[in-house]
Every structure is written in C-alpha cells, then in structure tokens.
Automatic annotation (TrEMBL), chains A, B:
Organism: Pleomassaria siparia CBS 279.74
Residue ranges of domain Tryptophan synthase beta chain-like PALP in the record: 57-367
Required cofactor names: pyridoxal 5'-phosphate
Record's protein name: Tryptophan synthase beta subunit-like PLP-dependent enzyme
A GO MF label: L-serine ammonia-lyase activity
UniProt cross-references to InterPro entries, sorted A to Z: TrpB-like_PALP, TrpB-like_PALP_sf
Keyword field contains Lyase: yes
Similarity annotation: Belongs to the serine/threonine dehydratase family.
UniProt entry keywords in alphabetical sequence: Lyase, Pyridoxal phosphate
Length: 407, 407
C-alpha cells in the first residue's frame, strides 16, 4: 500500500524544531492555562474512602507536590492536536514530490475522527484532493464535518480489513498518497511540536509569576514533566522525542477499560500488543501502538513511565475540567489529568522523585471534539461517589487561575 | 432594612476607573477571545428557512458585517462577573466604616447564585463574616459551594417576602450590612469595570493583528459596541456608565420567555416593570430591574437598544459556544451572542448603522456556573432544527481563533 514513503526525518529534537518552523503558520499557538483548584487537588492526598475498591485500598495515600500547566490543544484548529502531524506530513510530501505532483495524486486516510479533519484541512490549504475513508456507521455530524473541510468521503465497513480494502482501491484508482494517523515519523515529529511550545510557555508563565511554579522556578528549569494521552502513540512519541535529553520526563496515560492500556501492558511484557478491542469512553485512545511509535514508547530513555486510569477516573476528571476550569474537552483529553489526580502509582512516584520541591507538570488536553449529546450519554448514570467527590471541590477557586494564559 | 448606605459614587466613567483600581488585585483579568467561525456566522445572513415561524418570516434576512470579541467572565473568580461588584461594595464599606467595624457587623445577602459566591469570597478575603440567605430548595452543590467559601448559610422559603424576612432577622441580630445583588451604585460601578478591560483588550488584539477587526482598526477606535445580558441590570448599567460618551454603544440582551424581557418591555412602555415571573433557562436573568439600574438602562444616551431572544436561540448559541469555541458557559452567558446571531431587529440595525465597514462587537460571557446535569436537562429535548443548524457549522474552523487571548 502506498504511504508517505520518502526519506524520513531523524527522530530528534532538532527535527521537531524544523517541523515546528514548517507548520507554525498553519496552526494555533494554543494557550497554556493554570488552575489553582486543580493544582491544589493534585497536591492533596486522596482519602482512604476514595481508595476503597481500588488496588491501593488500605495504603497510605501519596502526598505529592504538583503544579499543573494545561496545554489546551482542544483549542487547536479543528479542535485537536492532529493538525500538527497532518500539516507536517503534507508539507513534507510537497517538499519531496512537488506541489503539482501531490495535487495530481491527492492524499488518502482512514479515520472517523480528528485525524480525518486534520488531513482534510491540511490538504485543502494546498488545494490537494483528500480522500477520507469512514465507516458507514459514522455519525452524520462527523461525516458532514469532514465534507465541510472539502474532503471526499468514501464509505467502508467498520473492520480494519474493510477500511484498508477501500483505501487500497482509492490508491489504485487515483495514486493518492496515504497519510497514516500516527505510525509514521513525519506524523510523530509533527505532533511533538507541541512540546516545544509547552516548554517555552511554561518558562514564560513562571518568569512572569514565580508563584505558579511548585518551587518558584529557581532550579534553572521550570518544567519537570509532561504527561500525554496515548492511543496510537503519535503524540506521546513525538513529545518524548522533542524532550529527549532535556531533563523533562515524559509520561503516558491510557484508559484501562477492556485492555485499553495496551501500551503500558506491552511495555511491561516487553512486546508490542498488536490488537486492542476496547469501548472506553476515551474513544480517541482505542488504537494499539504501531511499529514506529512502539520503538520510542518502549524505550525508557524516552518515556519514563506508563500509567492507566478507570472510566470513572476519566469521568471525574472531565467533570472537573468542564465545571471548574470552564474548558470544553473530549474524554480522551483528560486521561493525563486523571492519572495525576487518581493513580496512586503515579502519585507515589512523583512524591518520591520530586520530593519537597515538587514538580511542574505539563498536561496535554489533546482535543475538544465532542457534543452535548455525547457528554449526556457518558454521564447518564453517574455513580454516587463521582458526584460526591466532584461536589466537594465546588467553589474552592483561588486567585491567579485564568489570566495565566501564555499565547 | 440596612444596606450599603454610605455616600454613593458618581455614576461616571471615572468612578468606574477608580473602582477598577480598587478591585483589580482581587479579580482575574479575564481573556478576550476571538473566533472566526462565530464571526463568520454573525456576518452571514440567516436562511429564509431559519426565519420561518418567527416575527421576521418572509423578510429579507439582514446582512451585517460583524467581528466578535468575547469577554470570558466565565473564567472570572467564582466563575462569574459578580465578584467585581461584590469586591467593590465590600472595599467601599471598609473605606467608609473601617475594617474593624465591618468585621464586627458582617455582611448579608440573599442569593442562590453567583452573587452569593461573590459576596462570600470578597468577605472571606477581609475576614468579614458573610451571611447568605438561600432558599431551602437550593441544590446541595450550591449550598456546599457557598459554605466552602466560608459563608454562613441561612435558609428561607422561596418567595421574596420569606427571603427578606430572614435577612431582616439577621440584620437585627448581628447588625450585618446588606450587599444587594445589583441595584446599588457600588455594585453597578463594580460590574462596569469589565468594560474598561474589554476596550483595552480589543485595542491590543487589533493592534497586534488588524485582520481581527471588521475594518482593519483604522477608524481611530477599534470597538464599536458591547452587548451584555440583562437580569437585574447591574452589569448592563455598569458597562453603559463606563462607556458613556466614548462612542462605543451598549446594548442589552434578555430572554423573551414568559416575559423575561422586562427591561426591553419596560423601556418600550416608558415605565419600569417591577415583577417578573419567568422560568427561562437563562436562570441568572429572571429578575426585574431595580430603581437604580432602571434609571441608567431606560436612558437611551446610555443604553442604545434592548433586544430579546427565544429559548431555542439561547440553546443554539450555547451549543456553538460549547462545541465550537470549546468554552464552558451557563445559559445566561450567551443571550448576547444569541441576539447577534438570531435577532433580525438587531442584525438589521447593525447592517444599517455599521454599513460597509462593519462593527467590532464586544460580547460578554457573564458566567460559567452550570453543571453537566443542568446542561443535559436543557438539551434533553432538542428540536430537529437546532440539531441541524448546529451540525451545519461543524468544522468550519478558520485560522486565528484561539491564540488571540489578551490577558
């Protein structure tokens, strides 16, 4: 099958910097926001009650010191980070094959989600025909959304085989070039550009207001770690490449529901898990790692730790982000925050590694493409504990929350 | 009944500036955001279909040219603009009576909403006891929220008489000073401080990027109008006072449901409407104007026009703000945007007044204090048309949307 097959860039920070130069005129510099309520919550031990029924029941709750910096990629163009990789892949194609040639061939991808919109937008920007293969059962609004970006939508069945058969036919007929959703160096490097921004924005925020930092920003650096959601691993591996050897650790967050934490389990077992079948509410994270992303993510010199959270953790975190931060996110976006707030393994690790000084952690909100109806469905049956925990934080708003926006 | 009774400030722009100096260390400088999708929608004529069944059915849809600038008071402390008036009122009390005296007496108000939280926070900041009278039927989360701000909650029945009886008893027993929710010069002047920020922030945004302006910002001014929701009228009158004689027009937006547009109707009839009984989803706007706010709002030298919107208009606008802008707001917050998008009287007026050049309009998002459950309830029965119209705008995202945040 045809794909982005030209010479791949090095998987290095300087390749990420070059990618950033290439795409930055096409993407938003999304804001980094801070929130006192959430940083306070992250720095408060969970109750013994909250740990009941979890694997940490009966243990002393961790007491880490954490300041949070939220990278709002939900405010990115098309509402998700995916435009970064899409623009990078498309611009590299143009560099390598010439605009006319790429316009003649077109590009193709299969996705019913944010990647489809990203590729459609990037292609439209350069008047390149974009073929998007979507399952027949996709929601009408997603089909309409992709079409409104000027893409040609093709329908297929829902399985990987059915999708790929349609893609293959399109390639055969048109010569279109495949832009894969995550498992390609150009995509990984493109997604990693957000890490450069986070680093610079947190530096600026802390320079302007040292109180935002866990330790007043006097360590010579300001950012200690970044945590991102992990589905196919494009964003996680990209961030890990960008921050490799900077002293800033990169962590992974996944949903554990029905084995959705395939990256974590694979790394633990020492072998990539090649298929995942989960219906987690974090629907952007239902995919397994690919060969390329596995290589980076399974290397502990790149990704310092992989963690997972339950569906309830995701819902609790999502409620906090919507109702307290007033920020509209999709469920996949909050698994990083959920890990920080509710995963005791992560919290104990931070307590131990960060010590008295604490850590400043960058948390990627990956996207905001959901609907009122989808949220309604997710919260239709709210367990007691969730509602109670969320209420306990009502109104504990502090100063210095929203103005801290580094553009 | 005791109330803020000391010498009132002049109702002038310079009084608003003085108020701003007094409170600015206690409030957030909330961001002003722009959004290409919504500005484009505002500058696109409604369809004949959309006007069916409205009072404008069969008329040629207006074709105004509008650029929108959203003042995100949903990101204000306690999640709403109400802290501005509350801090101003409390600080003036301290100036007039001395901190010790105010601490001895305490403050009191009746509210189940944002004003209660605002007064509680302002009082707590200066270690002043705050008594908040809330209806027994208030939702537990609001009671918990008010208590978590350190306020003493007292319960009453739901009618104005029952509430005021409890307030009177508290004043009798403690000497507490009443901080009214809107109908007092100190409250109006305090809320008006947002207008100074909007003006400066829009200037800055347009200076940095003239493309954000309807006319490239070359008129000597950048902001043409501000539209705010109107309930009791504290915010509307405050903005009108702040922008009086600046050339920037101020407009009012109300829900029309069950006569919720009492300000508009009162101004039309030439007499204040003193009671309102509406269950509009814009629950912050269910109150009538007071004597003080009426004086300003009924004066067309202050408020240039009053408009109203339907419940469906509010829901449509709310969906756009949540799903497209990724901004979490309460229903009351979007009546200004709903007016701009759906009220043909307003749109025709802009087309006529603004002409070819168009207008830059500041739109106040007054607050974001709602819950997932409340939103679920509001959208439980979505009429066909609403869902369809919302879908039609999916993915029409442009460039330069989110980074334009003037802190």
């Amino acid at each position: 099958m045809g794909s982005i097959n030209a010479s791949s860039p090095q998987l290095t920070r300087s390749a990420v910097s070059a990618a950033h130069e290439l795409i930055k005129e096409h993407i938003h510099l999304t804001p980094v926001q801070t929130n006192t309520t959430l940083s306070t919550l992250a720095s408060t031990p969970q109750t013994a009650e909250a740990l009941k029924g979890t694997q940490w029941e009966g243990q002393t709750p961790a007491y880490p010191k954490i300041k949070l910096f939220f990278k709002c990629e939900n405010m990115q163009r098309i509402g998700a980070f995916k435009v970064r990789g899409a623009f990078h892949a498309v611009k590299r194609l143009i560099e390598e094959q010439g605009l006319e040639e790429v316009q003649r061939k077109g590009v193709v991808t299969h996705s019913s989600g944010n990647h489809a919109q990203g590729v459609a937008l990037a292609a439209r920007t350069f008047s390149i025909p974009a073929h998007i293969v979507m399952p027949t059962i996709s929601t009408p609004s997603k089909i309409a959304g992709t079409q409104s970006q000027g893409a040609i939508v093709h329908f297929s069945g829902s399985t990987a085989q059915e999708r790929e058969a349609v893609v293959a036919k399109i390639i055969e007929r048109t010569g279109a070039i495949l832009v894969p959703p995550y498992d390609h160096p150009n995509i990984m490097i493109g997604q990693g550009t957000m890490a450069l921004e986070i680093q610079a924005q947190v530096d600026e925020l802390v320079r302007n207001d040292p109180a935002l930092s866990a330790y007043g920003g006097e360590k010579g650096k300001t950012l200690d770690a970044v945590i991102t959601p992990c589905g196919g691993g494009g964003m996680l591996s990209g961030n890990a490449i960008a921050l490799h050897n900077t002293g800033i650790k990169v962590f992974s967050a996944e949903p554990s529901f029905q084995g959705g934490d395939d990256a974590r389990r694979g790394v633990e077992a020492g072998a990539r898990i090649e298929t995942v079948k989960t219906l987690t509410i974090a629907d952007g994270l239902r995919t397994p790692l690919g060969d390329w992303t596995w290589k980076i993510i399974s290397d502990s010199k790149y990704v310092a730790g992989l963690y997972s959270v339950t569906e309830e953790n995701i819902k609790d975190a999502m409620r906090l982000v919507l109702e307290r931060m007033k920020c509209f996110v999709e469920p996949s976006a909050v698994v990083g925050l959920a890990t920080i707030l509710y995963n005791e393994d992560f919290r104990k690790m931070v307590e131990k590694e960060a010590g008295e000084e604490g850590w400043n952690i960058g948390v990627v909100f990956s996207g905001g493409n959901t609907t009122i109806e989808a949220i309604t469905k997710i919260f239709a049956t709210v367990p007691e504990g969730v509602a109670k925990r969320a209420e306990g934080t009502v109104g504990k708003d502090g100063k210095k929350e929203v103005e801290n926006v580094a553009g």
